[in-house]
Amino acid sequence: MNNYTIDSANALIRWMRFFGTVLLAVFITHGVVMPQSSPATVNLRSAGDFVILAKTGISTTGTTAITGDIGISPTAATYITGFGLIMDASGTYSTSSVITGKVYASDYTSPTPTKMTTAINDMQTAYTDAAGRTSPDYTELYTGDLSGKNLTPGLYKWGTAVQVSDIGVTITGTATDVWIFQIAQNLTLANGAIVTLGGNAKASNIFWQVAGQVIIGTTAAMKGIILCNTLIQMSTGATLNGTALAQTAVTLDANAVTKPATATSVENKLLSPKEFSLLQNYPNPFNPSTNIQYSLQKTGQVSLKVYNILGKEVATLVNGRQEAGSYTVPFNNSNGTLGLSSGVYFYRLQAGSFVSTKKLILMK
After folding, report:
1. Which residue, 106, 177, 245, 305, shows the most beta carbons closer than 10 Å to its own?
2. Reported confidence tier of residue 144, pLDDT bands at 50, 70, 90
């Protein structure tokens, strides 16, 4: 090979390296994260049996709807407040009118105390696992402001706080991809912020490991498994498709929290809805809050909107892609943003070719 050929080859290599650097900069500037290999999932073990799990307290105000089991340890059931708990005859668990599932506490009848100790230990082990992952794909990305960004699978690390404005953030990938977000300070979703799942990304494969507090703003829509070292606080009307695992407390205010289905769970597959359905809201009539339940037979684009008697749209409760499963969405007229008067309204669910409309009544 002559010198001319060698020089030409070296020039080509330098050009390709330069072009690759420029291309990467363009993608980052425009809020698109380049694909990386997906990290291994975080094993929740028995902590994954719960939709909410805490050590010091679980409280709620307003009309909350929870799908899945909740539990507390080492504190007693008296630190679960606002749910109107009803003890089962076995003494091993209690129930609540706002929970589709069971409630467990460390002071319930055996074997519940052992069950709860194991779950708390598994929660802490999962947190340590997520926090201890090394060789992140991205470090200090967007200086912690994820607003308007599109995040592909990978391990992300921040030594600061992370925030999402009302613009929201999109997490895009396949049904088997995994995201781990290591956050050294607080995670804050602003009022109205929506975490949108793109492609076939699943909430059960998204892990938010947060050393500080997690603050989910009014009507914000969170997705994923929250592994928090301190407090998880959900503001009025916020929703969570995921789990809230806190090493201190979880506070709720008229929220809908739904445990996500997992791709490998035989139980969840068996419990997957066999058809699309829209149920009657409860309570009805209502003031100021009510809950709307529906089931999706398969994953797809979903729209849930509320209209007045003249057919004018007054609220958009859901507008995005959702996984197959059952959902509970709160409709709240108490925060002043709607200001609806007493009367008859209609809520309409559209999921693919499925369309259903039902009537609700606001009575002040």
Report:
1. 245
2. very high
Say if residue 33's pLDDT is above 60: no
pTM exceeds 0.70 for this model: no
Name, in order, each residue with C-beta under 8 angstroms of 355's C-beta and a sequence gap of 6 or more. Answer: 348, 349
Q: 147 and 197 share a domain?
A: yes
- Report how far residue 297's alpha carbon sits from residue 273's, in angstroms, rounded to the nearest whole number: 5
Write down which residue in 271, 306, 338 finishes a domain: 271
Same domain, 134 and 259: yes
Which are the contacts of 186, defined by CB distance < 8 A and separation ≥ 6?
A: 161, 162, 210, 212, 213, 214, 215
- Higher-confidence residue of 338 and 349: namely 349
Same domain (yes/no): 256, 311:
no
Q: What is the pLDDT of residues 42-51, one digit of tens each?
A: 999 999 999 9
Q: Is the pLDDT of residue 185 over 90?
A: yes
DSSP 8-state class, residue 166 = T
- Give the span between the Cα atoms of 256 and 134, in whole angstroms: 34
| Measured CA distances, 25 to 136, 166, 339 (Å) | 18, 25, 45
Question: Considering the domain boundaries, does residue 115 fall inside one?
Answer: yes
Joined tokens for residue 53? 């799990």
Domain match, 118 and 217 both: yes
What range defines the domain where residue 185 resides?
A: 32-271
Domain count, the chain: 2
Residues 96 and 198 in one domain: yes
Amino acid, res. 247? Q
Cα–chain center distance at 317: 15
Q: Which two tokens stand for residue 304?
A: 């849930």
The two structure tokens encoding residue 244: 């809230």
